[in-house]
Amino acid sequence: MNYNQFLESKIKVAVKAGINVDPDTLHESLRPDQRDVTAWALGLGAALVALDAGCGKTRIGIETMRQLQMKFGGKCLIATELGAMDTFTDRDPEVGEAAAMGLQIDYVTSQAELMASSCTICATNYERIRMGAFDFGQLTAVWLDEGNKEKNLASDTTNMLQYELAKVRFKYIASATPSPNETLELINYAHVLGICDRGQILTRFFQRNSTKAGELTLHPHHADDFWLWVSSWC
Questions:
Q1: What mean pLDDT value characterizes the chain?
Q2: CA distance readout (Å), 163 to 11, 109, 129, 134, 191
Q3: Which residue in 97, 110, 177, 211 has the fewest CB atoms around it within 10 Å?
Q4: What is the pLDDT of residues 144-156, one digit of tens each?
Q5: What's the Cα-to-Cα distance from 44 to each of 128, 163, 184, 215, 231, rounded to whole Å?
Q6: Residue 9 C-beta-side C-alpha neighbours within 13 Å
């Protein structure tokens, strides 16, 4: 390789471990921008879908799970807050996004209920996962809605999610509230998704604050590299 190729080989970006799909073949109810995001997420295999409120994360998540289930079979699981469950599972198309897409998603509380359901995509709440009611190793894909649950690593829920997500190939977090100013929060998402070890990223891109113990700041000369890396999976 020449010198430019050598330098390019040092640039850190997320590895694509997903499937390639033509955006035009995705569900007809998706807008063009939603199709592009879905195709991008499917191509990565693990990603943070950080779209603003009202941009269609629910429908993107359902279609991502549907595509993976059609290709690989098995069961897919969506995790969300109980207050948002109807958005996925309600049989009324005016309320449930799945119903509006002509699909059915069951609410389940355990692995046994998930495997027994006639639905290939099911939904549950985070508390059930924290209690150990599911084994992601038996699933095709997992979509974590309301990603603020994973932004803080110091919680039992996050620890359980990280443990379970390591067992499944296709995994996604959706959130309308990641803060680009809170770079450590973004790193935590990457860590939970298995995209990169948190310690490696901190060592590569960050410097310690000599005047304040425990505070890390982004190296100014690594800012472009850091955001290139973030944009490769978020």
A1: 90
A2: 28, 19, 11, 11, 11
A3: 211
A4: 998 776 666 667 8
A5: 27, 20, 22, 31, 12
A6: 6
- 206 vs 226: CA distance, rounded Å: 9
121 CB-near residues (< 8 Å, 6+ apart): 62, 65, 66, 69, 75, 76, 77, 78, 98, 103, 105
Helix crossing, 198-205 with 183-193: angle to 10°?
140
- Could you tell me the sign of the dihedral formed by the alpha carbons of 51, 54, 56, 61, in that order? positive
> How does residue 128 score in pLDDT terms, banded at 50, 70 and 90?
very high
User: Beta strand 206-208 with 216-218: parallel, antiparallel or unpaired?
Assistant: antiparallel
Report which residue type is found at 132.
G
**Reported pTM:** 0.90
Distance in angstroms (rounded) separating the CA atoms of residues 144 and 149 = 9
CB-CB contact of 189 with 150 (8 Å): yes
